[in-house]
Amino acid sequence: MSPKLHAAAGTLGMGLIALFWTSTVWVELFGTPQGIATVKTNIVQGLWLLVPALAAAGIGGAQSARNRRGPIIQAKTRRMRIAGLNGLLILVPSALFLAGKAQMADFDGAFYAVQTVELLAGAVNMRLLWLNLRDGRAMARARVAQR
């Protein structure tokens, strides 16, 4: 995979996570129950774009790291593993659960408990992906400087 495609996939993934997160906060603060249901449904639909984007970014990163060593590569790899597990074990199941509850207008304690966990896990993933973006850009600048 080309470095540009890897960067685009990672940026798309990070952007979608940020969009999902901010949309959730916004609609919870200022929206209606119908608005909450719409956002939660759209997030589930957006997973069809988010999951492949993050998978492509992960595959591209693994391919480019194959012949490299160093603390930055190790840190990026560790962060992606954490973000992937966080997404698979917390964020995707939470999105599905919350969309179902919101569509039934069932905004009980379980909804808000899972919503809180989802927001925290989403913030963690945004931070991890931001750090990877920062390190990836630094690595790209270093490669250009070596030429």
Assembly of the depicted chains = single chain
CATH architecture: Up-down Bundle
Unreliable stretches:
none
Q: How big a fraction of the residues is strand?
A: under 5%
Shape type? elongated
What gyration radius follows from the Cα positions, in whole Å?
A: 17 Å
What does the average pLDDT come to?
A: 92
> Order of helices and strands, N to C?
HHHH
CATH topology: Four Helix Bundle (Hemerythrin (Met), subunit A)
Specify the number of helices: 4
Going by helix content, strand content and strand pairing, the class is mainly alpha
Major pleated sheet: none
Query: How many structural units, i.e. domains?
Result: 1
Distance between the termini: 21 Å
What would you note in describing this structure?
The chain crosses the membrane at residues 12-31, 43-62, 82-100, 112-133. This is Transmembrane protein. Keywords: Membrane, Transmembrane, Transmembrane helix. With 147 residues, the chain is an all-alpha fold. The protein has one domain (3-146): Four Helix Bundle (Hemerythrin (Met), subunit A), CATH 1.20.120. 90% of the residues lie in helices and 0% in strands. The protein has 4 helices and no strands. The chain has helices at 3-30, 33-65, 71-103, 109-146. The radius of gyration is 17 Å and the shape is elongated.
